[in-house]
Every structure is written in structure tokens, then in C-alpha cells.
Amino acid sequence: MRIVARGSHVEHWMNGQKIAEFDCESDDFLERVRASGRSPGFAKARSGRIVLQDHGGLVAFRKIRIRRLE
Fold first, then answer.
1. Could you say which of 28, 43, 46, 61 is the most buried, measured as most Cβ atoms within 10 Å of its Cβ?
2. pLDDT score of 70 more than 90
3. Could you state, in order of their start, the residue ranges of all structural domains in the chain?
């Protein structure tokens, strides 16, 4: 899996195929965030910590790399 974020544009790739693409500042994205009940600051930070989560099942993470794209 690869997540590429450049400014407000985000791409989510899995097994070499792009499976999602969105802009964090688009009207569509902001409406979806509002409808989800997330906090008003959701997806506003351009730097900081990442969060890894599961949904109640067994999960394992390996070879996690974070690189700054220039």
C-alpha cells in the first residue's frame, strides 16, 4: 500500500493500482467530513503524527516508511 499526499491532493495505491484519489479542500470532501461527524479539524494538518488503526481484528504492520516528497 502507498499513500501519496502532495498539498491537499491525496492518492491511495494498493498493489500498484490507484484505488482512491481526493482533494482535502474540495467541497465534496468537506461535505463528507461534515456528514461523518468527524471533528471540524479533521484532515486540516499538513504535518504531524500518523495513526495506525484496526477495526477489532488481528492486525500487523511491517516495513512502514515515511518519506518527504520534494
1. 43
2. no
3. 1-70
